[in-house]
Amino acid sequence: MEKRILHIDVNNAFLSWTAVDRLKHGDKLDLRTIPAIIGGDESQRKGIVVAKSNIAKQFGIKTGEPIYQARKKCPSIINVPANHSLYKKYSDNLYKLFCEYTDKIERFSIDECFLDLTEFIKPGEDVLKIAIEIKERVKKELGFTVNIGISDDKILAKMASDFEKPDKIHTLFKNEIEYKMWNLPISELFMVGKKSLNKLDKLGIKTIGDLAKKDERFIIKHFGKYGFMIWSYANGNSNEEVNYKESRPKGIGNSVTLPYDMASIEQLTPVLVRLSEQVSYRLRKENMIASVVNVQLKNNKFEVYSHQKKLPHRTDSSKEITKAAKELLEELYKGDKIRLIGIRVDGLSGKDEIQLSLFDEKEESKDKKIDKTVDYLKEKFGYGMIKKASEIKREDKQIKP
Ligand SMILES: [Mg+2]
Fold first, then answer.
1. Ligand 1 centroid vs 102 CA: distance in angstroms?
2. Most buried among 82, 191, 204, 291, by the most CB within 10 A?
C-alpha cells in the first residue's frame, strides 16, 4: 500500500507557544506581532536568541546570536526567558490532538511530529483534507500555526513542511520531486550539513537534482553509507518508517567482562573510558541527555557494588560523562580484583526539551564539535579506529613489562 505520511512542524514554536500562553493569561500584547525573542539570561552577556518573532527577523535578528547583539539591532526588543515546562505542555497538547487521527506518531522533536496515516484513511478520503482539518483545528483549538508536509515518503514529508511558511500545507509526492525539490540548493536536503556541503560543491553538486542524477556508485565512492543515504533522500526513496513506538530508553548502559582480572585504577581506567564513550555515543544517537552516571564493579568473588552521581547539568558529552565515570571509579574501587566493569547513564530526557541550558558554555560547544567528529569517524571506520591519546599511552604502558 502506498504510504501516506504527514510531517507537522510548529511555526516559531517557542515564541508562538509563549505568545499564546501570555494571551491566555490576560496579556493584551501578542508577542508574535512585535519585535520579540526567546533567549537566555541577558545580564550575563551569555544568552543567545533561541526563537524570534517575524518582526524581530525583519530587524536582521538571527537565531543563535547573542542577545546583546540582537538588542543593538533593535533596542526595544522584548526578551522572554525560556520556559521548558510550558513548551512541554503545548507539545503534549499537540500530540494529544494528533492521537485522534492515528496511533502511528513519531515525536521527532518537541515541535515536530511524523504521522503515518496510511492505515487510518478511510476509503475515498483524501489525505489533503485531513491535513487541512488538522492545521485548522490546531489554530482554532490550540491557538498557533503549523506547517504540514504530505508525502508517500517520510523524508519527503519532512522536506515539504519546510517549504513556504507559516501556516501552509505542501505536498511532495515521489512523482513531484523533479519540479518541487530538485531545483533546490543541495544545502536544503535533510541531513546535509556544512561539512558535506563543501565536498558536494567540489564535485559540482549544487542542487538536490544534481545529487539525485549522479550515479549511485559515484556517491558511495565519495561519501560511503552516508552518501547512499542522502542520494536516496534526493531520489525520494528514503524507505524510512514512522518510528511510532514510544521507545524512550529509561537508561543506557554498557559493561564488559574483562579478559583477565584487573587490580588497579590504572588498568581499569582505559576500559571505563571506552565504555563511557560508547554510552555517550548511544545517548547522542537517541538524541537524549543524561543527568546521572553510575559505575558498577564486580570482583572475582562476584560481589557487585556501584556508585552514582548527579551531573552538574544534563549532558551527552563524552568528556563530561567520562570525567564523572572516572571520579566514581576512584571513589568506588577498594583494591580488589575486578572481573567486570560497567557504566550506565540515567535520568534521560530528550535533547530538544532542554536545548537552552546547554547554550551557556562555550567550552561545551567545542566538546560537541569533537564528539560529532568522533561519532562520524566511528560510523565510518568502526570503533577500534578512534582512541584518545591518553588511552593509547595507558594501554602501551600496560603492555610494557
Ligand atoms: Mg518548528
1. 21
2. 82
| CATH architecture type of domain 1-180 | 2-Layer Sandwich (3.30)
Residue 188 main-chain phi, psi, to 5 deg:
-80, -15
pLDDT of 401 reads 32
SS3 74: coil
Q: Which CATH architecture has domain 252-399?
A: 2-Layer Sandwich (3.30)
CATH 1.10.150.20 fits 182-234, yes or no: yes
DSSP conformation letters of 325-394: HHHHHHHH--S--EEEEEEEEES-EEHHHHGGGGGS-HHHHHHHHHHHHHHHHHHHH-GGG---HHHHHH
C-alpha cell at 321: 560523562
Region class of 72: left (phi > 0), else alpha (psi between -120 and 50), else beta: alpha
pLDDT in tens, 197-256: 999 999 999 999 999 999 999 999 999 999 999 999 999 999 999 988 754 456 888 888
Domain limits, the chain: 1-180, 182-234, 252-399
pTM (predicted TM-score): 0.62
The catalytic position among 42, 65, 112, 246 is 112
Distance 70 CA to ligand 1 centre (A): 21
Q: Is the dihedral of CA 318, 320, 325, 327 positive or negative?
A: positive
